[in-house]
Design a protein that fits this description.
The chain is α/β, with parallel strands linked by helices. It has a single domain, classed as Divalent-metal-dependent TIM barrel enzymes (TIM Barrel), CATH 3.20.20.150. α2 crosses α15, α5 runs parallel beside α6 and α6 crosses α7. It binds alpha-D-psicofuranose and manganese (II) ion. The site of alpha-D-psicofuranose has 9 residues, from loops. Alpha-D-psicofuranose binds next to loops.
Length: 396
C-alpha cells in the first residue's frame, strides 16, 4: 500500500477513536498507605464534569465520562437528574455506569458471591439500580468489576460462588434495555489474594456467554499476571465476538494505574494492531476504549491529557501497519520481514501527522502545552485549594 494511502487511513481511523475518561481520574486518590492530596483535585461531580470538558475541549477525543455509582451518584437513580443537568452544562455525556460492589462493610466476604443470601440480594439490587441509572442517562454500558474472592484456601466454596455469579449476572443482563451492554471485567488479584471469582478472560467470557447476548468482556490492561500476552487475549475475544472494551493503563508490577504506554508502549501498539487487523469493521465498531487511571503523583488534568495523546499516538502507529504486506510475509513464514513490518510502523514518528490532524479539526496541535498555557490548572487550584487542604490524607 502506498504511504499516502496509509496516512489517509490513519486520519480516518483516528476520527473513530474516541476515548472515555473516568470521573475518578480527577478526584483525590493515593496508595494503600495514604492519599496525596492535590490542590486542583475535583471534589464534586460538577468539578469532575468541568475537568472532563476541559480535556475534551483540548483533545476533541473524550466526549464521555465514566461514572462510578457510589462515588458519583450516591442516591442512585435519584441523582440522575443532577448528572443530566451537568451534561447539559458541560457538553460531556455520561459514559459507562460502574456499579460499586467493593466498598460496603457487608462485602468483606463477597458481594454477589457472599455466602449470606441477604447480602447477595443487596448486591444484586445495586446492580439492578445501576442498570436503571444507565437507562435514565442513556448510557450504553454497565461496566462491572466484581472484587469478590478469598484470601485463604478452603475459606470459601469456589463452586458455589460460580453459581451465585451466574445467577446474578443473568438477572442483571436480563434487566438491560435494548442496545445496552453488560461489560464483565476480570482481575486475578487484589483485593483478594488466594482466589478472585472472575480471575481471567476465560472466566469472564464464560460468564458473559451464560449471562446472555448483551454481555461482553472488559479487558483492563493492569489486570494480568506479569508478561501475559494481552494481545492474544484480545485476538481470542475478537474471534469469539466477546470483546466489549478496555480499561487502559500501564503496569510494571501489579495494577499500578500508570499512564498508558509509559512502561511498555509496544504492548499497547500490539493490542491496537490486533483490533485493527479485524476484517469485519462492524465487529470492532462498539469496542469501548476507556481509561482507568487515578494519578496521585502527576497532576490529574495533565496526566489525563497526556494519556489521551499517548493513546492516539499508539493507535495511529498501529493504524500505519501495512496489513496486506504483513499477511503475505506471514503466509510465506518470513519471520524477520513480518516483524520488521510491525517495527516499521511502530518506529514511525506519527506526531507531525497528529499535529496536522488536530489543526484541521480546530484543536490545539499540542494539547498538553495548550492546557499548561490555558490558565485552567491555576484557576482550579485557586478555587479548590482550601477545600482540598482540609481533607484527611490518612486512612486512620
Ligand atoms: C479495579 O481495580 C478497577 O480496575 C475497576 O475497574 C474499578 O471500577 C476501578 O479499578 C476503580 O477502582
Ligand atoms: Mn478497571
Amino acid at each position: 500500500m502506498h504511504i499516502d494511502d496509509r496516512f489517509q487511513r490513519v486520519t480516518e481511523q483516528l476520527g473513530d477513536f474516541v476515548i472515555e475518561i473516568p470521573s475518578w481520574g480527577f478526584a483525590n486518590t493515593g496508595t494503600r498507605f495514604g492519599k496525596y492530596l492535590q490542590a486542583g483535585a475535583a471534589g464534586t461531580l460538577e468539578e469532575k464534569f468541568a475537568d472532563a470538558a476541559q480535556v475534551h475541549a483540548l483533545t476533541g477525543a473524550t466526549p464521555t465520562l465514566a461514572l462510578h455509582v457510589l462515588w458519583d451518584l450516591p442516591a442512585g437513580v435519584a441523582d440522575a437528574h443532577r448528572v443530566e443537568h451537568l451534561v447539559g452544562q458541560f457538553g460531556v455525556r455520561a459514559g459507562s455506569i460502574n456499579p460499586n460492589l467493593f466498598q460496603d462493610q457487608e462485602y468483606k466476604f463477597g458481594s454477589i458471591c457472599n455466602p449470606d443470601g441477604a447480602i447477595r440480594r443487596k448486591a444484586i439490587d445495586h446492580l439492578l439500580d445501576s442498570v436503571e441509572i444507565a437507562k435514565a442517562l442513556g448510557s450504553r454500558d454497565v461496566s462491572l468489576w466484581v472484587s469478590d474472592g478469598s484470601n485463604y484456601p478452603g475459606a470459601q466454596s469456589i463452586r458455589n460462588r460460580i453459581e451465585w455469579l451466574e445467577g446474578s449476572l443473568r438477572l442483571t443482563h436480563d434487566a438491560l434495555g435494548e442496545g445496552q451492554r453488560l461489560l464483565i471485567e476480570y482481575k486475578p488479584f487484589e483485593p483478594a489474594f488466594y482466589h478472585t471469582d472472575i480471575a481471567d478472560w476465560g472466566m469472564a467470557a464464560q460468564f458473559a456467554r451464560f449471562a446472555g447476548p448483551q454481555a461482553f468482556v472488559l479487558v483492563d490492561t493492569g489486570h494480568h499476571y506479569q508478561s501475559q500476552n494481552i494481545e492474544q487475549i484480545v485476538a481470542w475475544l475478537l474471534h469469539l465476538r466477546l470483546l466489549g472494551g478496555f480499561h487502559f493503563n500501564d503496569r510494571r508490577y501489579a495494577d499500578d494505574d500508570l499512564t498508558i504506554g509509559s512502561i511498555d508502549p509496544y504492548q499497547v501498539f500490539r493490542i491496537f494492531h490486533e483490533i485493527l487487523s479485524e476484517k469485519n469493521r462492524a465487529a470492532i465498531r462498539d469496542v469501548a476504549y476507556m481509561i482507568d487511571q487515578s494519578h496521585n503523583i502527576k497532576t490529574k488534568l495533565e496526566a489525563m491529557v497526556q494519556t489521551v495523546v499517548s493513546a492516539q499516538e499508539l493507535f495511529a502507529k498501529a493504524s500505519l501497519v501495512d496489513r496486506e504486506q504483513l499477511a503475505s510475509f506471514q503466509a510465506d513464514a518470513k519471520t524477520v520481514e513480518a516483524e520488521e513490518c510491525l517495527r516499521e510502523a511502530f518506529w514511525t514518528d506519527v506526531r507531525p501527522l497528529l499535529r496536522d490532524w488536530r489543526e484541521r479539526r480546530g484543536l490545539p496541535q499540542d494539547p498538553l502545552k495548550a492546557l499548561r498555557e490555558s490558565g485552567y490548572l491555576e484557576k482550579i487550584e485557586r478555587e479548590r485549594k482550601a477545600r482540598n487542604a482540609s481533607l484527611s490524607t490518612s486512612y486512620a
